[in-house]
């Protein structure tokens, strides 16, 4: 690849990740959050959907914001995590379709107050755990599994990491499952848990092999005094 071609690609990437595009994304999430809160407040039937959409908008905005605070060198529009693959859109679309179909045919199913409270609690716990994970890890946090040890890469064992070994995975799994419990979606709740549990099980297995390679006995000792708190992992 020539130097000119590399410069052109960098120029295109910089233009794509422009202040205008960042503002458009953030404005969209902010608008979605505001409208969703109004819907949740004004409509009993669509209250769970409003909270779900507000939680979704907040999640994506926080992913970008925390990346900007601590990993500016990795910052791009992908930090919003909108480009999460087709499976992410299928999962969220399926949850939305299930909610609307069941609301139409079985409206009583969507008015189980206990599940609303449980789902909302899991969303809050999950979001707080993931946010704290990014906050305490700072520049050590990455949306991609690191396959080599950078010079500035350290083993974080303080803050939330003193209690949870993979708080970002713990947070996302329970956040996602919580959204479906909030919507009183029986099929999506089970499906989300099974798929995410399998995904994180494989990812944690791969990541911990690398972390033992990076940090040796320090990480093995850290494993012994912490837990993951994801069932069956």
UniProtKB/TrEMBL annotation:
Topological relation to the membrane, as annotated: Multi-pass membrane protein
Broadest EC class assigned to this enzyme: transferase
Q: Where in the cell is it found?
A: Endoplasmic reticulum membrane; Membrane
Please indicate if the UniProt record lists Glycoprotein as a keyword: no
Question: In which broad location class does this protein mainly occur, judging by the first location in its UniProt entry?
Answer: endoplasmic reticulum
Q: Name one GO biological process term.
A: methylation
Gene Ontology cellular component list? endoplasmic reticulum membrane
User: One Pfam family for this entry, by name?
Assistant: ICMT
**Protein family (similarity comment):** Belongs to the class VI-like SAM-binding methyltransferase superfamily. Isoprenylcysteine carboxyl methyltransferase family.
User: What is the recorded name of this protein?
Assistant: Protein-S-isoprenylcysteine O-methyltransferase
**To which species is this protein native?**
Diversispora epigaea
